[in-house]
Amino acid sequence: QVRNDRRCVILSSIVKVYNNTTMPLIILNIDSVDPKKYHRMAKIDINDEYYVPIELLYTHSSSPIFISTDENEHNGEIYDFFSFDWEKEFLSERKLKLKTGKEANFIVFKEVTNAYSENTDQLDHASFSLYIHPALHLTNLLPVDIQCSIDNAEQIDLKPSELTLITSGNKQSKLRFIIPSYNNIKWISDSVDLNVEGKGDHNEHLVILHNSTKPQQILKMVLRVDTFHESYRLLFYSPFWILNRTELQLEFQ
Predict the structure, then answer these.
(1) CB 233 within 8 A of CB 137
(2) Per residue in 144-163, pLDDT tens?
(3) Domain segments of the chain: what residues?
(4) Is 13 exposed, middle or buried (0-12, 13-18, 19+ CB in 10 A)?
(5) Which residues lie below 8 Å from residue 153, measured CB to CB, with a gap of 6+?
(6) Radius of gyration for the alpha carbons in the chain, expressed in angstroms and rounded
(7) Kind of pairing, strands 204-211 and 185-189?
(8) Residue of 196, 142, 152 lying closest to 175 (CA atoms)
(9) Which of 7, 69, 94, 118 is most buried as measured by Cβ atoms within 10 A of its Cβ?
C-alpha cells in the first residue's frame, strides 16, 4: 500500500476470518487422525476479525479451517463444528448444532485479494478473506411492532426500524409475520417461502395478513429479499409510502 507517497508494508497471514454473526466463534485445530481431539486456537468475538496462523493453514493435506461457536462452556467442550476449504471453496451454507438443541445457520463467503510475493513488486499471489454471516437479516420498516415466526419453530419480535440477525433460519425457511396490534386488531400473514423467488427486479414477495377474527379482512405488505455475500437481507414494509415535503403538519385519514 502507498500512503503519503510512502510504501506501507503489511506482513500478515494469507487468510483472515471476519465474524459477522451473533455469537463468538472459535478457530479449532482438529487432530487429523481423531477428529474428536481438538485444541482451541483462537476466539473471534462478534464483529471482530482474526488472521489464521500459517502453520494451522497447512496442518492437513487439504486446506480446511475448522470453526465452532463459543457457548461459554467452562470445560471447553465443543458441541459441533464445521470446516471450510479456504483454497477450493468460495461460498458455503453451514449449520452448527448448539447445546440447546437448536441449529445455527451461517453463510461463509470468500473474497480474494491480490497480494505481493516475497521480495518482489509482483501482485501474483492472493490473500483470502472469509466472511461468516447469519443466513438471514430481517429489518422491520413498518411504524409498528411485528413478530416473525421462522419455520414454525421460533418467533422473534422486532420494533420499528429494528434489524435482527437470524441464525435459526436459512435461505429455504418459511416465514410467517404477525402484527400484534394495528387498529386494535391482530394480523397474521400467510406463509412466505424464501425458497420461492419473488417478483420483479427486487425479488419482492407480497405478504397477505389476515384479521385474526375476520380472515376476509386483509392487509398487504411486502417482503423484499436482497443478498449480500449471498446471505439474505430481508426488508418488511408497506407497499405505499407518504412523504411530507411541505412545511405543514399533515394528518392522514
Answers:
(1) yes
(2) 999 999 999 899 999 999 99
(3) 2-134, 136-237
(4) middle
(5) 168
(6) 23
(7) antiparallel
(8) 152
(9) 69
